[in-house]
Amino acid sequence: MRIELPQLPYAASALEPWISARTVNTHHGRHHRAYVDKVKALVGDNAETLEAVILRTAGDAARQVLFNNAAQAWNHAFYWQCLRPKSGPPPPAYEKWAAALKEAALGHFGSGWAWLVRHGTQLKVITTANADTPMVHGLEPLLVIDVWEHAYYLDYQERRAAYVTGVVDNLLNWELAECLTT
Ligand SMILES: [Fe+2]
Predict the structure, then answer these.
(1) Cα(176) to centroid of ligand 1, in Å?
(2) Centroid of ligand 1 to alpha carbon of 28 (angstroms)
(3) How high is the pLDDT of residue 47?
(4) Distance 71 CA to ligand 1 centre (A)
(5) How far is the CA of 150 from the centre of ligand 1 (A)?
(6) CATH for 60
(7) Based on the domain organization, do 76 and 122 belong to the same domain?
(8) Is the pLDDT of residue 179 over 80?
(9) Does residue 176 surpass a pLDDT of 80?
């Protein structure tokens, strides 16, 4: 992935009524952009991919700021791809994963991300805190829900459950996980 702010794959209003255009514009145009801009400012002009920056800075306390911003830039680009307007409810084969994602997203304390990941041939639901991202743990992400407050506060205030339910039941692009068997 290049170090740049990707265009949204849909209109800002396309995720309504579950995520408003106001939230999408702020989240993508300000929060996501700020992470990308910070990475660019720190790495300067080079041809590195975002993944390369993340992997070379993970666990390096001296490069924590770069890691955090690079991982957040990647996580957000992936998040927008995981949402699909009017996706509808999860396919029956994925209902247990949908339930697990909801539980994980609600149970995660503070800022972070709830993920459906592939670990070898297995699917797993995990959460990561702050900017942390599955690739540094050897896991392949398939779907993600942003559970930072900025993802839902304008629409739902503190009601994370309403946001998570809206996303899981209506907006997740389950085709991203459909190459796998459960
Ligand atoms: Fe976010």
Answers:
(1) 20
(2) 8
(3) 82
(4) 11
(5) 6
(6) 1.10.287
(7) no
(8) no
(9) yes
Structural domain boundaries, residue 122? 92-177
Note whether 128 and 161 are same-domain residues: yes
pLDDT (tens digit per residue) in 134-149: 999 999 999 999 999 9
The DSSP-derived string for the chain is --SS-PPPSS-TTTTTTTS-HHHHHHIIIIIIHHHHHHHHHHH-S----HHHHHHHHTT-GGGHHHHHHHHHHHHHHHHHHHB-TT--SPPGGGHHHHHHHHHHHHH--SSEEEEEEEETTEEEEEEEETT--GGGGT-EEEEEEE-SGGGTHHHHTT-HHHHHHHHHHHTB-GGGGTTS--
Measured in residues, the chain has a length of 182
For ligand 1, the distance from its centroid to the CA atom of residue 91, given in whole angstroms, is: 26
Of the pLDDT bands very low, low, confident and very high (cuts 50, 70, 90), residue 180 is: low
Mean pLDDT taken over the chain: 95
Each residue's pLDDT tens digit, 47-76: 899 999 999 999 999 999 999 999 999 999
